[in-house]
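User: Working on a comparison across species. This one is Outer membrane protein (Porin) from Ectothiorhodospira mobilis. Can you predict its structure so I can line it up against the others?
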Amino acid sequence: MHRKTLIASAVGAALALPTTALAQGVNFDFYGSARVQVESVSPDKDEVLDSYTGVRDAYSRIGFDADYALTDGLTLIGKLELPMDLANKKIQDPWDQDKDSKSGGQSRDVRVAKIGVQGDIGTLTVGQMWMPYYNAIAYPVDMFSTYYSGFATYTSFRRQDTVAYYSPDMNGFSMGFAWSADNGNADANGDEDDRLQLTGSYSFGDTTLAVGMDDLGGASDQKILGLSARHTMGDLYLGAKYERFDSDIDGDAYGADGDTAMNLYAGYTLGKNTFKVMLADVENYGENIYHLGYDYQMTSDLKLFAEYYSEEETAAITEERGGKSDWYGVGAETSNGYGDISGGQVFAAGVRYDF
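Assistant: Here's the predicted structure for Outer membrane protein (Porin) from Ectothiorhodospira mobilis:
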């Protein structure tokens, strides 16, 4: 547990920045984003989960960034970001609502809490943060505004007890690495393995290509291998992602060896309007997924959005204002453990206000 104590101490230092360093030249950038949607959800099996219309939070948050120049070319940086589940009136992630202090490798009442250094040799941070594999592989197609954004991937967004390094740009090439304590899969003794991630990216002109590995280990020796591409052509943005499981799991189960996730995304901006479409095939987690979106940027701080989301098998759809724990509870007697909702469709419209 000593390694976790060191990480926790470092993050504690980040949280203490506002009270210990205000008079020492630290720069702060406070921010927030309120995001709420009204949704009409129609599961395919209404005998398992009834259709409903309700309000759901779409990942509201509040936080601050901080930086302090240590020397020329070396800056101390810190970030604290809390989730605001406005629909449930709680400080929690709207998906990961588990009451445990550590659920799925992240604290449910903190989105980001990290501290580190940034300089000519790259960026090194410790704490809970967005992971390098997500940033390089999943993010290029994670461009929607509703709660249903980001589910069509095998990886995780953020993890606590993590040390991450990002290299500087080297003529278009860059790399990322992360070691995350006990955030992998369980081994034969029931103990969680450490999680390792490695990514490499190459940017040329308006195009970026990336490759990544997310090693969860465990008794199934599970790895996620990924490729991504993104390209901007004026007002048109194109993104693509391919992921594949390499594991000792056989058969029709989540994480089975050879299972793949493929995504194609396109977004077009015309003045204040942005039109979005994504087609995805994520085996054993949604299967065929269709996602359409429209954003209207009313002002620099205010956005209106509307989306249609459809999944063939259960992935994102859950109970009204529910999350992961409710999702696991619905039809939990089924062999895949995901519940027997068997997918469905969602119409959602909402508002985002940044401050």
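For your comparison, note: The first strand starts at residue 27 and ends at 43.

User: Helpful, thanks.
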